[in-house]
Design goal:
With 117 residues, the chain is mainly alpha-helical. The chain folds into 2 domains: 51 residues, lambda repressor-like DNA-binding domains (434 Repressor (Amino-terminal Domain), Orthogonal Bundle); 53 residues, no CATH class. Helix content is 69%, strand content 0%. Helix 1 crosses helix 3 and helix 2 crosses helix 3. GO terms for molecular function: DNA binding.
């Protein structure tokens, strides 16, 4: 996931603005824009002003984990949960690394081979 600072820099460059121009549009010093782009903590109100100047807003969205563990009503995930699918286990599978998924598959295949003997 990219940082807020890099997202602001990308949006500023996409608008064809310098840091100074963005600072003027947001009503803050250029040095504040530079701090935001470097990832320095700034006040939320300052960040909102910068984003508004660029035509963006600050929105919260659930993480993938939160989406799986508490799906919105009416979503496909909520329907899967109602059907009895363990979304926590499904999320764990998605969040596992390729090596971890391979290990689980090998373990399952070995278990199946043992059963079939």
């Amino acid at each position: 996931m990219r940082s807020i600072g890099s997202a602001v820099r990308e949006a500023r460059r996409g608008a064809g603005w310098s840091q100074a121009a963005l600072g003027r549009a947001a009503g803050i010093p250029q040095s504040h824009v530079a701090k935001i782009e470097r990832g320095v903590d700034v006040r939320a109100s300052t960040l909102r002003r910068v984003l508004a100047a660029l035509g963006y807003d600050l929105a919260l969205r659930p993480t993938v984990r939160a989406w799986f563990l508490n799906p919105p009503p009416g979503s496909h995930l909520a329907a899967a949960r109602a059907f009895g699918i363990d979304l926590g286990q499904l999320y764990a599978g998605f969040s596992a690394s390729p090596a971890e998924r391979l290990d689980v598959a090998v373990h399952a295949a070995n278990g199946l081979a043992e059963i079939l003997r």
